[in-house]
Amino acid sequence: MDRYRLGWLILAGGLMLGLGSGWAAYVWLETQSLAQGEEDQSLHPVLVATRNLSRGIKLSAEDVRLVSFPDTSRPEGALASVESSVGRPVLEPIRNGEPVLDAKLGPADVTASPLALRTARHKRAYAVRLQGPAGQVIVPGDRIDLLVTVRPTDGSGGPLTEPTSRIVVEQVPVLDVLRSAASGNTEGMGGSQPAPPSDWEDIVLEVTPEEAERVALAEHEGTLRAVLRHPTDTETANTPGVSQSRLLGLERPTRQASDPQPRRPPSVAPAPRAEPVRQTAPTAPTQATAAPSTRIEVIRGGQRSEMTF
């Protein structure tokens, strides 16, 4: 019985010794791997935004903060100090918590207006004057389509065709809305009485050079209207435009290629010209010639005879 218990004790002791040795080896290996990882991934300071930063604003010390990033995940071109960003204008929008890259900031000595700094690279800020209360509906950040109503003229100034409306540019971002001086209070004009509503609005659009040329010509030749569109609507409307007669339903339908050709009235050939009848002299009667004779063979019984007529 003592030998039986002794064997179990030896077995249990060996098992405990093996578990302890394995655990010790595991802890040692984990400690070595963590130490090696800390040596390989040293931390570096990276400048990040503390709020959403839009184009055109100049950074202050309250707009950014430093965060430690591992060397392997540090963005290329990220700034590493607050002093390197203070006073520099934002050229591209930066979200809250996003690293501040040097390429998204302009030089600190830029003297351009905030509106010019809010204009994207390779784009133009174009101010368009619209009639009516457009500015009461459109706000900066919206996207609009511009329509023009124009009546083409010939070289002498006469109307070439009827009035036509058509889309000029689509999906154009609105940078700013400028109201006329009549809006708001009229201080310095005999008191602070509220002025009547504005009768015009200037909206500043962000367009490409080609779009600026189209808008300039449309503004010179006709009347512009702005149409507000949904911010997620990015489809292009390929409309042919509308004319006055088409609007009123007076335009004649065009014949399709499959339509039958219209019937033409049958053409009547001209009557032939009557030729004059020429009179000829009577000729002398000729002597009648004898008609040839006819023979008939007649058979009666066993007798055969011929008859001549």
Task: Give keywords.
309 residues; alpha+beta; Type Iii Antifreeze Protein Isoform Hplc 12; six-stranded antiparallel β-sheet; two-stranded antiparallel sheet; 10 strands; 24% strand
Task: Walk me through the structure.
The protein has 309 residues and is of the alpha+beta class. Helix content is 19%, strand content 24%. It has four helices and ten strands, in the order H-E-E-H-E-E-E-E-H-E-E-H-E-E. Strands 3, 4, 5, 6, 7 and 8 form a six-stranded antiparallel β-sheet that branches. The protein has a two-stranded antiparallel sheet with strand order 1-2.
Summarize the structure.
This protein has four helices and ten strands.
Itemize the secondary structure elements and their pairings.
Layout: H1 2-40, E1 43-49, E2 64-70, H2 114-117, E3 124-131, E4 143-150, E5 164-179, E6 200-207, H3 209-221, E7 223-228, E8 242-243, H4 244-247, E9 295-300, E10 303-308
Antiparallel strand pairs: 1-2, 3-6, 4-5, 4-7, 5-6, 5-8, 9-10
The H/E string reads: HEEHEEEEHEEHEE
> Which structural class should the secondary elements be placed in?
alpha+beta
Give the rounded overall mean pLDDT.
76
Question: What characterizes the major β-sheet?
Answer: 6 strands, antiparallel
Beta-strand share of residues: 15-25%
Helix proportion:
10-25%
Q: Number of DSSP strands?
A: 10
Radius of gyration: 51 Å
